[in-house]
Design brief:
This protein has 146 residues and is low in regular secondary structure. Helices cover 7% and strands 11% of the residues. The protein is built from one helix and six strands.
């Protein structure tokens, strides 16, 4: 309701709406369906340790990381290696903009990816802006609507 254009809007899993930093928690925006708190048990956690021989990162799925490290060393430093996910690059679709981002910045109105500079509907001349205004973007400065 504050209509603040926030640098990083927050998405509420409970009510499926977007909020600013000040109203991001379920209690601050009176969420009708507050999400359950995230709980991660020790059985699903994975520790990462550095092998003293090969200096690679080793994934430990045991309660004692030394067991996985010994297994890694016994396999001539070939098992339990952490594989870094490939880095994806997201290109801005604003005309003449050549910027890229490491995270997707998708306009909620037109569903097109932009850079942080062009993320707001008014910054990329969003074609959907005239048909369906976003609930969390302030009106255009030149707008005559009250």
């Amino acid at each position: 309701d504050c209509q603040q254009l926030d640098f990083l809007p927050f998405y509420c899993e409970g009510c499926k709406r977007v909020f600013c930093l000040q109203h991001r928690t379920a209690t601050k925006h009176d969420c009708p369906n507050p999400p359950a708190p995230h709980s991660e048990t020790k059985s699903t956690q994975k520790d990462l340790v550095v092998c003293p021989l090969c200096k690679n990162i080793v994934i430990s799925t045991h309660s004692d990381p030394n067991i996985s490290l010994n297994s890694h060393i016994d396999s001539n430093c070939k098992s339990n290696l952490y594989q870094r996910p490939p880095t994806q690059i997201y290109h801005c679709h604003a005309p003449k903009c050549k910027k890229t981002e490491l995270v997707p910045v998708v306009c909620p109105l037109c569903r097109i990816n932009f850079c942080f500079t062009h993320r707001a509907a008014r910054d990329h001349s969003c074609p959907s802006q005239t048909t369906k205004p976003s609930p969390y973007l302030p009106p255009n400065p030149g707008s005559t609507a009250q």
